[in-house]
Amino acid sequence: MVWYFVHRISTTTISSMSAAEALTSLSIYSEAYPPPWRPVLILVFPLLPIFWMYRIDITDTTLKFGYSCASTTIDRSDIISAVPIDHIKGLRNWGGWGIRYNLKGETGYIVNNGSWVKIAVKTKNKKDGKCSPKIYVFNCNEAVRVCRILNGD
Question: Contact at 8 Å (CB) between 123 and 114?
Answer without folding.
Answer: no
